[in-house]
Amino acid sequence: MDHYIITIARETGSGGRNIASKLSDSLGIPFYDRDLLRLASDVSGINEGLFGISDERIGKREMMTAAKEVYTGEVLPPDDDDFVSTKNLFEFQAKVIKELAKSNVSCIIVGRCADYLLSDRTDVLRVFIHAPLETRMKNVAYYSLAWSEKEVAKYIAKEDKRRAEYYRYYTGNDWRDAAHFDLSLDSGALGEDGCVEMIKKAIPLFVH
Predict the structure, then answer these.
(1) Which domain covers residue 15, as residue numbers?
(2) What is the pLDDT of residue 39?
(3) Nearest to 101 by CA among 78, 128, 119, 75
(4) What CATH number has the domain bearing residue 165?
(5) How many domains would you assign to the chain?
(6) What are the backbone angles phi and psi of residue 184, rounded to the nearest 5°?
(7) In this structure, what are the phi and psi dihedrals at residue 147, rounded to the nearest 5 degrees?
(8) Tens digit of pLDDT for each residue in 116-137?
(9) The whole model's pTM is what?
(10) Which residues, in sequence order, are CB contacts of 107 under 8 Å at separation 6+?
(11) What is the signed CA dihedral for 4, 10, 15, 17, rounded to 10 degrees?
(12) CA–CA gap between residue 77 and residue 25 (Å, rounded)
């Protein structure tokens, strides 16, 4: 096994990003989260701020259309009226993700439908991180001390809904459907370090 890619989808507050970071340190390979926005900006020439605004979100125009597989793999040219549309920004991110996979360098990619975009590859381990709401609320509250319990719960519900809509729009699939992942882990039961160890053990079982 010369190289592999690990994709991590995660519920809000489940610790998915922390797990990716710890996994990166343990395996000695890079992980990409918001770094993908910078890479997509470099490739497209579009201001990174625009990618930040649309990050794991669908635009108003896209929300008015049916949620189905709209990913085409083709980016629009700069002279197109929709060059900076939410959909085209996604296409550029998808292009970066696919190029990272083709580079034959092991890495971890967080979110952004990476599991779907790389579904045709056999060198990918697709992971979904979830946790009970109580655990996720504690995690979010730790970083948002000024928020009330109600505000924390509202934030989690909003963020989960946003990620689910984004995933469904670009893949046509249910974000929480375990059938689209090789490994679904409860970080509340396993802890972040436990999830890291489980993922490491799963790599040789699923990656070919």
Answers:
(1) 5-206
(2) 75
(3) 119
(4) 3.40.50.300
(5) 1
(6) -120, 115
(7) -85, 145
(8) 999 999 999 999 999 999 999 9
(9) 0.87
(10) 5, 6, 29, 30, 31, 32, 100
(11) 50
(12) 38
